From TrEMBL, chains A, B:
Subcellular location: Cytoplasm
Family annotation (InterPro entries): PRA-CH, PRib_AMP_CycHydrolase_dom, PRib_AMP_CycHydrolase_sf
Annotated GO biological process: L-histidine biosynthetic process
The gene coding this protein: hisI
NCBIfam families: PRK00051.1
Known catalytic reactions: 1-(5-phospho-beta-D-ribosyl)-ATP + H2O = 1-(5-phospho-beta-D-ribosyl)-5'-AMP + diphosphate + H(+); 1-(5-phospho-beta-D-ribosyl)-5'-AMP + H2O = 1-(5-phospho-beta-D-ribosyl)-5-[(5-phospho-beta-D-ribosylamino)methylideneamino]imidazole-4-carboxamide
Homology family: Belongs to the PRA-CH family.
Organism: Streptomyces laurentii
Limits of the Phosphoribosyl-AMP cyclohydrolase domain: 41-113
Enzyme class: hydrolase
Pfam families, per the entry: PRA-CH
The protein, known as: Phosphoribosyl-AMP cyclohydrolase
């Protein structure tokens, strides 16, 4: 069973018309802490999840593994309060700035990118 | 014609073994300016693109529209120098911190998220 877009949705038709979804009806959504700039996690949204994110003030994703809507923090308490939402130039990726309560990652770390570093931040300037 | 993973790749087998790719063999890669925290864009990598990103110091993506590798900046000059690469807790998303030369977006704006704001940052706190 694969996830498919939940339609019809309540998303503003003007937004729905330009949203470019993947074959599974989903769009990647980057969650970023609005003040520190930390990238917290990447989730997936269909039209309805985006609608709920835009209108409820709480980040709502589509869980590809559980195949259900997932209001971030509903079970963990680690709520994401929505600060802003932007679509990229191709209309196929969302950037959601949030105020994250506690850990964004289900493993308990602040972000989902804290533990599996493939290439560490290099010392500094004379860059590469 | 749909994009498929470019195999075999030269990616470190220990990384390849834990990478969880989408049905198209690709993983979303978030490019973030390493010092300011700006989220610049989201691209897609297959194993070989990740290998090249890890070993050449230049961000390399798989272009889903052109179905070819794309070394960011090769035509525009808007190079991304790789500073660090991390895999998320589910091993299905990459966060690449870079030093972006010039505009990240092909439209000429600094990031790909600058122009299509669905929900503006609320005045709130001393936000921004």
């Amino acid at each position: 069973m694969s996830s498919t877009p939940r339609t019809p949705s309540d998303l503003d038709p003007a937004i729905a018309a330009r949203l470019k979804r993947g074959a599974d009806g989903l769009v990647p959504a980057i969650a970023q802490q609005y003040d520190t700039g930390e990238v917290l996690m990447l989730g997936w949204m269909d039209d309805q999840a985006l609608h709920l994110t835009l209108t409820t003030g709480r980040c709502t994703y589509w869980s590809r593994s559980r195949e259900e809507y997932w209001v971030k923090g509903d079970t963990s308490g680690h709520v994401q309060h929505v600060k802003s939402v932007a679509l990229d130039c191709d209309a196929d990726t969302l950037l959601v700035k949030v105020d994250q309560v506690g850990a964004a990652c289900h493993t308990g770390t602040r972000t989902c990118f804290d533990t599996d570093v493939l290439l560490p931040l290099l010392p500094a300037e004379p860059a590469e």
